[in-house]
Amino acid sequence: MSTVKQSNEKAWVEHIALRERINGSAFLRSLNDLRIKVSASCKRDRFILKHLKQHAREKGRPLQILDVGCGGGRLYLKRFGEVRGIEPDETLRQAALRHYAEVKSGLANQISYPSDTFDAVTLIDVFGHIEADLKDESIAEMFRVLRPGGIFIGFIECNAENFWYRTAKRRPDLFQKYFIDRLGHFGLERATDTDARFQRSGAKPVEVLPIDGFFPAVGYLNCLFGNEYQQEFQWLKPLLLGSKILGATMVTGEVFNCLLSPVSSLMDRISPPNHCTALMVCYRKPERR
Ligand SMILES: C[S@@+](CC[C@H](N)C(=O)[O-])C[C@H]1O[C@@H](n2cnc3c(N)ncnc32)[C@H](O)[C@@H]1O
Fold first, then answer.
1. pLDDT tens digit string along 6-60?
2. Is there an atom of ligand 1 within 6 Å of 128 CB?
3. Which of 170, 155, 176 is nearest to 42 (CA)?
4. Is the CB of 211 under 6 A from ligand 1?
5. What is 3-160+185-214+272-284's CATH number, 3.90.1310.10, 3.40.50.150, 3.30.1050.10, 2.10.70.10?
6. pLDDT band at 157, cuts 50/70/90?
7. Which atom of ligand 1 is nearest to the CA of 183?
8. Confidence bin at 1 (pLDDT 50/70/90)
9. What was the pLDDT predicted at 6?
């Protein structure tokens, strides 16, 4: 197994352990629900919850949900019905099996479920991992298993044209190492290209929202720039130190992220579309005529 894959898997497995700990305690669960409502770091959770809630209300029954590239699973999806997963990594698949009704090995472009099976398909932090030449067939496959009128909800990592990405690209070697290889983001595209790709496939937009990323949540800058970039750009050092101090505990980090929320949401609204580092999308599969 490559070092990149190993370190990614380790981080995702640690994430699952945290999610399970939160889910196991009523107190932590309600604290986490509050955090999801207000923190700048939880925009995607709010978006996913909003659209699933709306769709479940429309249907008036529990939903059949497929979480593609599910990793260890997102426990809150189960609030809306029965969740199944597709996951290529065996360790993560076993972790997700503890929570989901079924988890099959597969890829976004190879889903072994019959056509028109699911009310909702989620793809959270996965599309950036799919190479460009496999993206269209992945979209077609995910929409194949959706029922007509069903919704696709995605959190899609993007190749941003914002200040941080422009800075990072001044060192192409480090950009490749820390923005692409380490995160496994081999298929990053600009936000407008991503949206166009989905709409070309026939997907009907319900809501498409950018996440700007100029004022990133605590920890984000350290994750991307807390390495050789600091030697290249000395001015990053105090910023990274501040971010490190704030992120020293989950509580201080999340308090800051909650305070950051209004300005971060404002930036999402006023920044040029391709400045965004991620796109939150909800598309509908058209009803058959
Ligand atoms: C960043 S993790 C996100 C996991 C999970 N969706 C979450 O939000 O916690 C990316 C996941 O995508 C999976 N993956 C990578 N390439 C994939 C592909 N072509 N099809 C489906 N899943 C893929 C990886 O194994 C990994 O579990």
1. 556 666 677 777 777 887 888 888 888 888 888 888 999 999 999 999 999 999 9
2. no
3. 155
4. no
5. 3.40.50.150
6. very high
7. 1
8. very low
9. 56
Q: Please answer whether residues 43 and 280 qualify as being in contact, where contact means their C-beta atoms are separated by less than 8 angstroms.
A: yes
Under DSSP, the state recorded for 65 is: E
Kindly report the protein residue whose alpha carbon is nearest to atom 13 of ligand 1: 69
pLDDT in tens, 56-99: 999 999 999 999 999 999 999 999 999 999 999 999 999 999 99
| Choice from 107, 126, 152 to test ligand 1 binding pocket (greatest atom count within 8 A of CB) | 126
Helix/strand/coil for 93: helix
CA 236 to ligand 1 center in whole angstroms: 30
188 lines ligand 1 (CB under 6 A): no
Whose CA is closest to 249, among 281, 218, 287, 214? 218
Confidence of residue 213 (pLDDT cuts 50, 70, 90): confident
Cα–ligand 1 centroid distance for 133 (angstroms): 17
Q: Which residues contact 108 (CB under 8 A, 6 or more apart)?
A: 68, 69, 86, 123, 126, 127, 130, 134, 138, 141, 142
| Domain boundaries along the sequence of the chain | 3-160+185-214+272-284
Q: Closest ligand 1 atom to the C-alpha of 74?
A: 9
How do beta strands 102-104 and 118-124 pair?
unpaired
